[in-house]
Amino acid sequence: QVQVVESGGGLVQAGGSLRLSCAASSGSIFSINAMAWYRQAPGEQRELVATITSGGSPNYTDDVKGRFTISSDSAKNTVYLQMNSLKPEDTAVYYCNVKGSRINVLRFPFDSWGRGTQVTVSS
């Protein structure tokens, strides 16, 4: 299995910044195809915020374009989400998702989620 752990959430005032981190680890050799950040506000469905491929190509939902930046460190199997100009409507639990393959002679695809980190933006 591949474990995913997020960190960096917290309480911030509107207009402030936070940086989320997400690290993937496993006792097996694995490769990552893509990493993503999702968020889920109370009473809402989980929504995609940003993705980044192993080649480094980022994509963002329209709500966060120009404010959030996703980046990754392949050597550390870690993805980051720099969130600037935060708004109260950004308040949610942020989840990290990692897709790739475990390698043990054959490749075994995985799709792993972290437990989430709370981001609260006060007005």
Q: How would you portray this structure in words?
A:
The termini are far apart. This protein has 123 residues and is mainly β. A hairpin with a 6-residue loop joins strand 4 and strand 5. The protein is 0% helix and 63% strand.
Shape: elongated
Low-confidence stretches: none
Radius of gyration: 15 Å
Compute the average pLDDT.
Answer: 96
The N- to C-terminal Cα distance equals: 40 Å
Based on secondary structure, the structural category is mainly beta
SSE run: EEEEEEEEEEE
Largest sheet: 7 strands, mixed
Please provide a brief summary of the model.
By secondary structure, this protein is an all-beta fold. The protein has no helices and eleven strands.
Itemize the secondary structure elements and their pairings.
Layout: E1 3-7, E2 10-13, E3 18-25, E4 29-40, E5 47-53, E6 58-60, E7 68-73, E8 78-83, E9 92-104, E10 106-113, E11 117-122
Parallel strand pairs: 2-11
Antiparallel strand pairs: 1-3, 3-8, 4-5, 4-9, 5-6, 7-8, 9-10, 9-11
Core attributes:
11 strands; single chain; mainly beta; 123 residues; seven-stranded mixed β-sheet; four-stranded antiparallel β-sheet; 63% strand
